[in-house]
Amino acid sequence: MSVVDLSKVPFPENNLRLFLDETCERHELDFAAYAGVNPIAQSVHGFVNYPDEWQTRYVEKGYQHKDPALLLARRSIGPVDWQGLRKAPAFQTIFRDAREFGIAEQGLTIPVRGPFGDIGLFSVTRDCPDAEWALLKTKVLSELQSAAVRLHDSVVRSHALTRQLTHPSLSAREVEILQWIAAGKSQQDVADILSISNRTVEVHLRSIRTKLSALTTAQAVGRAIGLGLICPD
Amino acid sequence: MILIIDGINRHRYSRVLDEMFALRARVFGDRLGWDVDIVDGKEIDQFDALDPAYVVGLNDAGRVVSCVRALQTTGPHMLSDVFSDILDGEPPLRSATLWESTRFCVDTEALDRGKSRNSVSYATCELMAASLEYAQNSGITDIVTVIDPIMNRVLKRSDCAPYDYVGSTKPMGKVSAMAALLDCTDDRIKRIRDFAGIEGNVFVDEATAEALADPETVAEGVAPTPKAGESEAQRARRKAQLEEYCIDQLLDASTREELATAKRLADMLFDKKMIERKISHLADC
Fold first, then answer.
1. Which residue of B has its CA nearest to A144?
2. Residue B59 has what pLDDT?
3. Shortest distance, CA A61 to any CA of chain B (angstroms)
4. A155 and A51 assigned to the same domain
């Protein structure tokens, strides 16, 4: 399969390149990249905010076929830190090359698995010493996980057939919680009203945001109303 | 000690995985009477083909004593499929920072009662602490875990009570099953560690991980090809580390069976020229 560069084609609702730039800025990262496989659409999608010259070199050399960051990460459920790949010969080859374009070998790849065997790989890099990298990772990894899934879902849903299949479905508890949020209650209020823990409300809100591809709970409320999943207050 | 096996390294751990699938067969098939497929004494289902991550607990002789399986909730997992009964027909939670843990079990036959390092209680807490730490290090905030009422009681007694449940308890085989929520927080990890007296890093170091891996298929008597870029000094250091590990295993063995396993490992590594000296007799003095 060949690589479709999504940054060069018009993309409904989303400016993916902008999303990468914003993610980098928010989390003090240098570069970000996404590669995804959608077996239903039978396509491989990719886009990056690396320098254009490096993108060209990467594809010219066919690195996507031997880059261990991509090949290994898709078989992992947790993020793969590139520190663990340094011994792999292919990694050395690619990163000796990448250094010329100002790309550091400090990075990680987050694998995302979707419901249809679709896989997304979200990679980020940052030129910094190991100790600083470890600190940064602890701080931003949860948010990067959410960003990776949101990005992957929006790419998968850009395909008409997959979009039909991925109509978000909320559980009764999720609807109940979101309905109270839409009525202006705080997270703690909802916990008290439903006699459940604050953390239970939190884990459901995280799930709601993931299902609706929403960045914030407010956005999730808007989308849920739009989809008729909850009633406007 | 705890070993993480996932799609990246599973081809090197067929011995450990086989022992793990056999343990699952004894626990979920025989003891709990769940409707699971057992072939050749091993319980393997369709989710094992999806490259899940396994958190595997091993005793000092390298034998599997506990295990659990983790999958992302964004993709196919058990609650979205075979355990959907538990959720009363409701769609499961789906979150980038929520993992599902299933097939959590410990080998109650190989372990003792009480709270020693070789007890059911210690092995359970070590596995639980390790799974939470592995998830936390991956940026995961919560785990939804499918357990039976006995495991639920064990969790409560180990100062690790679930903060909530989703769906409801449903009959399954001789017992029932439920889906519990656990937060991957420092606080919870500390409470489990304190309860069982677990100190320091529970994950195996590189040398131990190497020793637990399947023997590499090399021609008899031929030294394994040195890894590219590995210097003479590094090779010597690796040999010394492996040998030290084997000696520890031989001297720490507390049962006849553990000793036999440790001797076998030492002899095998010597045959493959992965350690310098023949040391299996050391434990006989």
1. B139
2. 94
3. 23
4. yes
